[in-house]
Amino acid sequence: MLATLRSLAVALALTLAAGTAPADADKKKSPPPNKKTPPKAQPKHKPAAKGEHHHRHKTESFHGMIVMVSGSSINIKHSNGTGKTFDAAKAAISGQATSLQGLKKGQLVTVHHVGKEARKVNVEKQPAASPKLRGKVEHYAGTVERIQTDQFGDNGAIWVKGHGGVKRFGVHNETNIDYKQGGKTIVHTLQGVTKGMKVKVRHQGNQATHVDVVK
Questions:
Q1: Whole-model pTM above 0.70?
Q2: Residue 164: CB atoms within 10 Å
Q3: Per-residue pLDDT tens for 40-50?
Q4: Under the phi-then-psi rule, with left for phi > 0, alpha for psi from -120 to 50, and beta for the rest, what region is 153?
């Protein structure tokens, strides 16, 4: 009897062991499916800000006096001292001049431009008449003692103290005023000249024809 019970217990244990094996196998996690990493999204092109494209083509205006004309290039000086250069090759010229050839130093103008390209140049006033030059061309170097000028720096007078004392020279539309900077000649007016500067004046009588500012 005892042997029979042992046999039944062993058989039951084997049956239970065989029945639980699949359950244990089910508990094992199957490997995750092989998922491919989606391609990285390419950044979209950022459109230009509203009005940015328009701003690059915005027409602006600049008012001042012509201090130099070189080919189709005109240099304009504002009364506050700001200078700008424009290409007037394709500009419409109106007012007291009707062509590019009619533009000259000393004219009061308003330039309508896009960037450095002049679209319209309206000549509002012709330059003041320059005095008649007499005598031979002479040179005088010294230090600026005093400046008298109009609002654009185009007409007035300069007092220079040199070896011959203090001399006064008239400055007018035909007087060229410049200085050297970085190997280049910078066109200027009396607005750029101040007391204490060293200058070389080329003159006829008491009228200056050229003022070279020594920087």
A1: no
A2: 10
A3: 655 565 555 55
A4: left
CA nearest to 143, candidates 166, 167, 160, 157:
160
Instruction: Determine how β-strand 165-171 pairs with β-strand 156-162.
Output: antiparallel
* CA atoms within 13 A of residue 135's CA, in its CB half-sphere: 12
Contact 127/177 with Cβ under 8 angstroms?
A: no
Q: What is the pLDDT of residues 82-123, one digit of tens each?
A: 889 999 999 999 999 999 999 999 999 999 999 999 999 999
Domains of the chain (ranges, CATH numbers): 58-125 (2.40.50.140), 137-214 (2.40.50.140)
Chain centroid, CA 109 distance in Å: 22
Q: Which long-range contacts (CB under 8 A, 24 or more apart) does 58-62 make?
A: 58/114, 59/112, 59/113, 59/114, 59/119, 60/112, 60/113, 60/114, 61/110, 61/111, 61/112, 61/113, 62/86, 62/110, 62/111, 62/113
The beta-strand segments (E) located in 26-155 are 60-70, 73-77, 83-87, 92-95, 108-114, 117-125, 137-149
Question: What is the Cα gyration radius of the chain?
Answer: 44
